[in-house]
């Protein structure tokens, strides 16, 4: 375990986003899950056994919601046959007794989703059911304009990139930054932040200025370090290829520890496709979750659902949803031929990369364990060793950042490398966090920045709450070069 020097955020702390999350967001999340399962129970038809099991799950979820709202104790996780039950319960016993509204935030929130998953796993007919799947795909459908815009741009960029290849490194670095920033803001669901770029545009002052505007909200931006890591690896591989037997392996891997499904997974795949096409990686390994997690996180089935939507975009985008019909909304506009061909290009690009083994999905139970990623070397040594073979491991989103930094109340100027402890310098892993801020923890800021943001409108003022960091408006892009030796300071 990465025992750190700062305190954990707690659901009992009024000034933490944990307070609001436990009292307002968790009951809503549970209500959504109850509604979803209830709806599926209605669709069971003649399958009475399934219907009865579904009703039991609804009752369990309702009881859990009651427990959360009434600050009842966290009970041991029922044995659903998974290998992490004992570790969850040992930690609960060690931290406990805990009640919902006075618990360490990170542990309690992971426990909440893990506990929900037992209700399904212990059933016969619902063991693989995801109560958030409907929500995830609905949100993806509603991001249609941005999806189409990016699909068009990706096709164009790939053509232009092929034409300019291998001679313009300044433009390549700019494009790398653009792709990473699109991928970063895809987590904020604030789609308006996407800039409209072409390969030529990004070389013009205006394009650079537009990007600089969005960059003003990135409080720490280590993308140049990440680009340097990937180009150095590419150069070294080219050098090795010259001296080694023809055909010997020159694999260069980039890993993406995924966050959310739908639009965010879509932009992650755009980044993966770009890295492969630009020769900045030869393989991209994606790490999804294997149980429904923090509502929107990617499960392997979400990857399939996304590809399915792209394979059949007409029914996906043009069939009115039940809600649209009930609200009497006009039918969605048909896709144009150009839009359909842009989506078809993406579909063929991604399915080919997947079929060729250039894009790989690799779930691991470690990602849904509670607590810090600093536990990786001890709790998941095989995964740790595997990640060491990657040139760069990209951690997407807010929760992954909370886990990287142990979700502790660090001083905001604490260096990122220090806050990530065992994954920092000397770990053998190059870490890049692409995080829009949606929780209290933040590190690596210049002195005075946190204070300045607190004093700005809605930033929390003198309340003691770091409110500016709760709404996804600000971001941090932090890189740690763990393949380099630790320096004593
Ligand atoms: O419930 C709170 C939270 O854990 C916050 O950290 C964050 O707002 C959200 O859930 C998860 O965000 P993300 O999908 O970016 O990890
Ligand atoms: Mg998430």
From TrEMBL:
Catalysed reactions listed for this entry: beta-D-fructose 6-phosphate = dihydroxyacetone + D-glyceraldehyde 3-phosphate; beta-D-fructose 1-phosphate + H2O = D-fructose + phosphate
Top-level class of the enzyme under EC nomenclature: hydrolase
Coiled-coil residues: none
UniProt keyword Cell cycle present: no
Domain (Damage-control phosphatase ARMT1-like metal-binding) ranges: 21-452
Any Pfam family: ARMT1-like_dom
EC number: 3.1.3.-
Cofactor: Mn(2+); Ni(2+)
Keywords: Hydrolase, Manganese, Metal-binding
Keyword Metal-binding found: yes
TM stretches of this protein: none
Family: Belongs to the damage-control phosphatase family. Sugar phosphate phosphatase III subfamily.
PANTHER family: DAMAGE-CONTROL PHOSPHATASE ARMT1
Domain notes: Subfamily III proteins have a conserved RTxK motif about 40-50 residues from the C-terminus; the threonine may be replaced by serine or cysteine.
Function: Metal-dependent phosphatase that shows phosphatase activity against several substrates, including fructose-1-phosphate and fructose-6-phosphate. Its preference for fructose-1-phosphate, a strong glycating agent that causes DNA damage rather than a canonical yeast metabolite, suggests a damage-control function in hexose phosphate metabolism.
Name used for this protein in its record: Sugar phosphate phosphatase
Organism: Sporothrix curviconia
Upper classification of the organism: Eukaryota, Fungi, Dikarya, Ascomycota, Pezizomycotina
Gene responsible for this protein: HRT2
